[in-house]
UniProtKB/TrEMBL annotation:
One of its GO terms (biological process) is polyamine catabolic process. Residues 233-248 have a biased composition (Pro residues). This is Putative glutamine amidotransferase. Keywords: Glutamine amidotransferase, Transferase. InterPro entries: Class_I_gatase-like, Peptidase_C26, PuuD-like. One of its GO terms (molecular function) is gamma-glutamyl-gamma-aminobutyrate hydrolase activity. GO terms for cellular component: cytosol. Residues 72-90 have a biased composition (Basic and acidic residues). Residues 70-90, 227-248 are annotated as: Disordered. It comes from the Bacteria. The keyword Glycoprotein does not apply.
Amino acid sequence: MSRRPVIGVTAYVEPAAWAVWRDVPAALVPQAYVRAVTAAGGRAVVLPPDDTDADVLRVLDGLLLAGGADVGPERYGRPPDPRTESRPDRDAGELALLTAALAADLPVLGVCRGMQLLAVAYGGSLHQHLPDVVGHDRHRPAPGVYGSHPVRFADGSLAGAVMAGVDEVNSYHHQGVADPGGLAVTGWADDGVVEAVEDPARRFLLGVQWHPENDAHPRPVAALVRAAAGAAPAPPRPTRPRPPVASG
């Protein structure tokens, strides 16, 4: 039996509650990410923020940058908007991992915040509050409530191959990519918001603005696991995503 590809999934550090414990700082990640990696044939390893080194990459076959709080605007040379909520520990730890992963050409998938972190790492910048740019709240209708919207992908792109036949995705974010830096933009919402970025020069580097881990068939996660196993990222059968559950 062949070894499952090991996928590092970056974690949140947030106050959490379980059993008799309340508001305890915890390193955690929504189970949806783990479930998606496992269903695709991978082995998920949760990575709490740690910027001491990136030695853990020696035992990983792929890296998944999970969603969560905003990337600190100091990382792309902007003053903070009052509505920006950053996590400096995550920024430092994840950028250390990403820098090393890029040097090793390790397959990387960025989800929501993770896509935005990719753009920043490639020299880009973010819109700190999308409603100010697009004039609506459809990308995050309410706290803990996902929206959905049409999406299109560039012909011949990795995103287009992975998402072939899909024309709508879920949505839960109030920031977005303003400048992708050195990345190629290969997916767009119907209002022009960037929905996918990638680096065609790399073995597998893809960022998606939505939360595929919550879909019935999480195609980008499956493509990451395939790339980590050394296979070409072939998309599964076309299907419309199911309504997600809120997971941050």
